[in-house]
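Q: Focus on the shape:
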Amino acid sequence: MNLAPFRTLVAVSDHGSFAAAAEQLHVTPAAVSQQMKTLEEELQVALFDRSTRPPRLNAHGVFVAGQARDVLRRFEALIDAARAPDEIAGRLMLGCISGISSDLVPAALRNLRERYPGLQVRMAEGQSGDLVRRLLRHELDAAIITEPVVPEPELEMLLITTEPLLVIAPAGASAGSWLEAVRTLPFLRFNRTSGLGILIDTSLRRAGVAVREAMELDSSEALLNMVHAGLGVGVIPEGQLKGEAGAKVRRFPFCDPPVSRRVVLAEHLDAQRSDLSQVLYLELKRLTAERGSAISTEGK
């Protein structure tokens, strides 16, 4: 039996609709619908409740989708195992917090492609929390994220680097410390659902600091530009102090003792492609050590 309809069924389960699955698979919704009808005919069972719009998986469909996910993982693991023992090859589904892929990851992937021509990488960008959920659903093999404040017991976290967080304030601000800056100036909040945003909020609560929230932003670059324009104070990773704006804002270590965020490579404890994620991890570690500086990321 062709495995393609089962991949489509898993995509529908993961993304909630034919249209969303089609977008993920780069096909039309009509093609997804036809595949699902064909699969139901082959299995001789209804997988969807079509009394709703859009159609939703029924209880049997949810069960079959879960079994299909396991079969696909085992099949891909079999393909990998059939290769020569010392051959690094196969497809790695990699998640990455937005921004880190603009610098470090391309360099690592370029080096790995030259070293291991049979290694294929498919990348998905997102915020740390979303990537963790995709790891737990086995949609991703590994993800580069900000280490969660609350540990996830089903995932292994391999430290890539640590990066200090800095409070940044407008050049004309009179504040003499990070604490005075965040207490007296409007606070520009980093997206509170992101890994970095959660770390910042947790650190402020532990320090007993209340802020006057003025704005919430999704990227360190946008936050830096707003601070440079004099709109308030915020917290970003040290590596994001770039360009003219980065050179002209005031900066203080965030909290006492100073807080750093940990950038990690996360993978499921029963990951089928641990060999592929390990070669990526080792290359990321080599590059960060070689550069001798923190990773430049958006920190999501």
